[in-house]
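fwd from M.: "can u put these together and see what the complex looks like"

so here's what she sent:
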Amino acid sequence: EKTAIGIAHSKLILIGEHAVVHGQPAIAIPFPLIGVETVIERVPGTVKMDSSFYHGPLYLAPEALQGIVKCVEASLEYLEIPCKDLLIRINSSIPPGKGLGSSASVAISVIRSLFDFADRECTDEELLELANVAETYAHGAPSGLDTLTITSRSPVWYKKENPIDYIDLGEDFHFIVADSGRVGDTRTSVESVAKLLKSAPKRIQRKMDRIGELTHQAKHALERASKHFLGQLLNEAQKELESLGVSDAGLNKLIYFARKEGALGAKLTGGGNGGCIIALAQNEVHSKLLAEKLKKYGATAVWPFVLKKH
Ligand code: MEV
């Protein structure tokens, strides 16, 4: 009997979140330490297109779950697989609601498993198109950044309505992601920024432009291996995000401690108001040390990781 598998990793936004929604560039990076595995088996007489599909420690918001079901339906139809006798088991190690791309990773892992089930190779275009079926349910109007980053092995340079670009790193960079423990609602933070922009267009537009400028400089810092400069840029971006009201006491505390313990820079990552921070460490040893310290300071999970020059 055929068993099919599809895996997908997670993603992080390094810099440019929120401003990317309003036309500025963002840099996102693949985050392979956590991810999703989907296994499909043929089990006669079982399939229902509902949440009984899901086994294991998976939680998705109802809209996201509905998105996955729609995405399964669209993929089955596209692959001409009859929708019967299928058991789809999804196992995710990505905490949901933390800006780590949980919903998009689930979608991509599921699509890959369905292609494997059909013995078909899957092109990036097919993958992105089918994944965006799910993302449209999960996030309303997705920028597409999550799905692009989850299918990429290199850092992604992204600007709405522009072809995607990849960034060549000048060296390895060592980061730590730390979870504040609270779930953030990206949709609400995105809406609050849109409201601000409407109420004080000039002042807020200047902030958007500033984040865009910092993101351009961060691309150069990554390419030229200027990690101290990159750290400063992350700190500057955090200042802007705070002034947009998307950081909160829990994130600020972790950011403060990360810097105090020698991080070259630290900021929130993703939607904010809950969720995670990303900090740039001095080197590999420091990233492990920093991870331990952040755990002591209250992070509910920490992931030291290296962004590798290819
Ligand atoms: C969320 O991970 C990133 C935001 O910029 C929203 C988006 O790009 O759709 C806050």
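replying to her w this: The first strand starts at residue 3 and ends at 15.
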